[in-house]
Amino acid sequence: MERREALKLLAGAAALPILSRDMFALFRQVHEELPATAALKTFNPHQNATVTAIADLILPQTDTPGAKAARVNEFMDAILAEWCEDKERSNFLSGLDDVDVRTRKQFGKNFVECTSDQQKDILAILDDEATSVREQKLETRRRRRPREPMEGPFLASVKRLTLVGYYTSEIGETEELKLRNHFSRYQGCAPLEPEASRS
Predict the structure, then answer these.
(1) Cα 82 vs. chain centroid, distance in angstroms?
(2) Which DSSP symbol is given to 191?
(3) Sign of dihedral through CA atoms 40, 44, 45, 50?
(4) Cα separation values, 189 from 1, 28, 38, Å
(5) What is the pLDDT of residues 45-91, one digit of tens each?
């Protein structure tokens, strides 16, 4: 499966269960290719802090690690850098910057400087707007053309990437979903070890 095809399927997804085995493995590979220490390609430090805070509000730490521990921000950074076209990347970053514009207007400070309750208030407003936009454009979009990968309200894109980034990470796969290599890539031509070397 190609990256663009996976992104287009993801754009139409409302929830994680639609991920095929191939898509799961493809997104899992993004995590496996992340460097040991963060090396951002798209986000500047402030954008990274903002998207990390948003993702952690969407999937906070409970009895299992949250989005931050699963490096969802780095997953998003890699997807934006390596999978998205310039326009998609620009739209996402504009939406991310708009979060700060809104919080400065409402609370006089950037999103990351707000209290948790203030951050939740802003996300609730963005979520209501995303729902309204989605409902208004649903019929038009069905008739017009397939949805583009990163098209639509910013928060909807962040939610999709957060969920996919989390549940295809090692933490999401093993600690939250309780899976062990269930969706790993199948290698039909893997070398076999002789019986003697396995003992």
Answers:
(1) 14
(2) P
(3) negative
(4) 19, 20, 33
(5) 999 999 999 999 999 998 889 999 999 999 999 999 999 999 999 99
* Interatomic CA distance for residues 112 and 129, integer angstroms: 21
Q: What is the dihedral of CA 126, 129, 135, 139, to 10 degrees?
A: -100
At position 103, the amino acid (one-letter code) is T
For residues 156 and 91, give the distance between their C-alpha atoms in angstroms, rounded to a whole number.
Answer: 13
Residue 149, amino acid: P
194 SS3 class:
coil
3 state SS for 113-162: HCCHHHHHHHHHHHHHHHHHHHHHHHHHHHHHCCCCCCCCCHHHHHHHHH
∠ CA 184-185-186 to the nearest 5 degrees?
Answer: 115
Please check the confidence at residue 148 and state whether its pLDDT lies above 90: no
Give per-residue pLDDT as tens, 97-106.
999 999 999 9
